[in-house]
Amino acid sequence: MMHWSFVALLLTILTSSQGILTTLSQTNGKYLYDYATVPFLAEVFKLLVSGVFLWREYKTSPSTTKMTTEWKSVRLFPIPSIIYLIHNNVQFATLTYVDTSTYQIMGNLKIVTTGILFRLFLKRKLSNLQWMAIVLLAVGTTTSQVKGCGEASCDSLFSAPIQGYMLGILSACLSALAGVYTEFLMKKNNDSLYWQNVQLYTFGSIFNMARLIMDDFRGGFEKGPWWQRLFIGYSITTWMVVLNLGSTGLLVSWLMKYADNIVKVYATSMAMLLTTLLSVYLFSFNPTLQLFLGIIICMMSLHMYFAPPNKLVDLPETVKAAPESLKEISVERQTDS
Q1: Residue closest to 1 by CA, chosen among 257, 265, 246
Q2: 3-state secondary structure 172-187
Q3: Cα three-residue angle 31-35-37, rounded to 5 degrees
Q4: What residue ranges do the domains of the chain occupy?
Q5: Cα–Cα distance list, 158 to 91, 137, 161 (Å)
Q6: Cα end-to-end distance, the chain, whole Å
Q7: Quick one: CA dihedral 208, 210, 211, 212, positive or negative?
Q8: How many other CB atoms sit within 10 Å of the CB of residue 318?
Q9: Most exposed of 19, 54, 251, 335 (fewest Cβ within 10 Å)?
Q10: CA gyration radius for the chain?
Q11: Contact 50, 194 (CB under 8 A)
Q12: What whole-number distance in Å separates Cα of residue 244 and Cα of residue 247?
């Protein structure tokens, strides 16, 4: 089995290329395809891949491939899709009150809320150093996104209506809740990872299809039903976006099963910084001092969270040797007397 650090690194690389591929898929700054079809096709891709792997696993060792088919277990799997659906609507509502840069910065709250829900719902104890590392990660990612203080965006951060901040906090909590609940599902029994994925992505495909149908009704079917425009405007880059989105989803489910949410949070946070660095070379993005400071803070956070305690705190050897030295001194004093 792969080590979680390799999967996390792969997730970081794929996630960092997501935004870049999406930008490259545009033509003259516009999408020639219906962007809402991308998540649907990504869900279908994840479902097909998981189905193939489940079939292979069952064919190889049917006795060890555990699949719980009871309704009381299956009925739990639509819940992450429902949470994400609500989260997406809250995202749009938040953007009506705050600008994009403020929303991005507030989005870093999900790092801290994930740690809190991770502790409350999954009963996973974190050390004081690990809590400090999580807060540092949120500070580092926020620092990297803050622009120069002379710019208008700096003022807009504190001038949004209270509704914007409340919705931003709710969005962060929903994002964390979806991740923590998915981890609970993946670890609640010893079912095959691929069987759990099949259940997750079946409901994911259904909910994404429902969104496309709702978009049709809202638009009065001006562009025709969604299945007729499913592949219209797709290029090689667009298909790369679909494959990238699907692959990152499969890696996240693996991490949820064999690692945890905090590993995923670190991977996606590092991916955001890597995306910004790559944008410097690909899109002539001007790096700022805040970006480099944010990267340094995030690397410190990464070391603090995952390094063994003895690598973080130096215990002086003289403390351990003290009892022996005291014995020697007392013996010498007795012989002198």
Answers
A1: 257
A2: HHHHHHHHHHHHHHHH
A3: 140
A4: 4-336
A5: 19, 21, 9
A6: 67
A7: positive
A8: 8
A9: 335
A10: 25
A11: yes
A12: 5
Written as six digits, the tokens of 192 are 């095959």
pLDDT along the chain (337 residues), means of 10: 88 92 88 91 97 96 94 95 90 84 84 94 91 95 75 58 90 95 95 97 95 90 89 95 96 95 95 86 82 93 90 63 45 46
Give residues with Cβ within 8 angstroms of 135, minimum separation 6: 112
Residue 186, both tokens: 């993946």
The tokens for 103 are 């929303």
Residue tagged 């063994």 (tokens): 308
Distance CA 180, CA 186 (A): 10
Residues in the chain: 337
Residues 48-70 as b/e (b if ≥16 CB within 10 A, e otherwise) read ebbbebbeebbeeeeeebeeeee
Residue 337 CB: number of other CB atoms within 10 A? 5
| The amino acid at 238 | T
* Integer Cα distance of 175 and 95 in angstroms: 16
Residue for token digits 């809740």?
Answer: 177
Identity of the residue numbered 74: V
Find, among 152, 138, 151, the residue nearest to 105 by Cα. Answer: 138
Copy the structure tokens of residue 62.
Answer: 């049917």
